[in-house]
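Help needed: design a sequence for this.
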C-alpha cells in the first residue's frame, strides 16, 4: 500500500500552520500586517524553507512586509523549533507569491473576452441549450 502522505509533506504543512499562527499572534511588527501563507517548500535536509505569502493589500507595501518578516525570521525560527520536533529547524526565506494576483488578472481577462464576445454575437438574447 503506497504512502498517502509523506513525512516531508506533513512537516511542511505543520511548518506552514505554525508559522501562520506565530505571525498572526506573536509578530508585533506593524509592517507585516495581514498576510496569508500560501505554501512552504523545504530542502531535503530541512536546512532551508521557502515560505510563500500573499498580502491582502496586493503588491503595495510588499518590500515593507518582506523587511518585517526578515527581521522577525530569527524569532520565528526559534519558536518554530520549539513547536515542531525535527532534527534541524530550517532557515526561513520569505517570497512574495504573485499567483493569486495572476489568477485574478487572468480571470478578469477571460470575463472581458466573454463579455465582448457576447456583445458581438448578441448571445445575451439566446438561451442556452439543454442537453
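Sure. Designed sequence:
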Amino acid at each position: 500500500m503506497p504512502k498517502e502522505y509523506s513525512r516531508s509533506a506533513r512537516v511542511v504543512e505543520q511548518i506552514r500552520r505554525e508559522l501562520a499562527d506565530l505571525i498572526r499572534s506573536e509578530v508585533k511588527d506593524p509592517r507585516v500586517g495581514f498576510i496569508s501563507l500560501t505554501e512552504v517548500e523545504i530542502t531535503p535536509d530541512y536546512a532551508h524553507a521557502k515560505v510563500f505569502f500573499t498580502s491582502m493589500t496586493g503588491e503595495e507595501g510588499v518590500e515593507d512586509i518582506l523587511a518585517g518578516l526578515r527581521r522577525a525570521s530569527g524569532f520565528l525560527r526559534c519558536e518554530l523549533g520549539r513547536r515542531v520536533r525535527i532534527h534541524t529547524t530550517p532557515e526561513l526565506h520569505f517570497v512574495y507569491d504573485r499567483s493569486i494576483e495572476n489568477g485574478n488578472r487572468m480571470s478578469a481577462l477571460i470575463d472581458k473576452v466573454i463579455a465582448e464576445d457576447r456583445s458581438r454575437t448578441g448571445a445575451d438574447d439566446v438561451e442556452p441549450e439543454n442537453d
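DSSP finds three helices and three strands in the chain.
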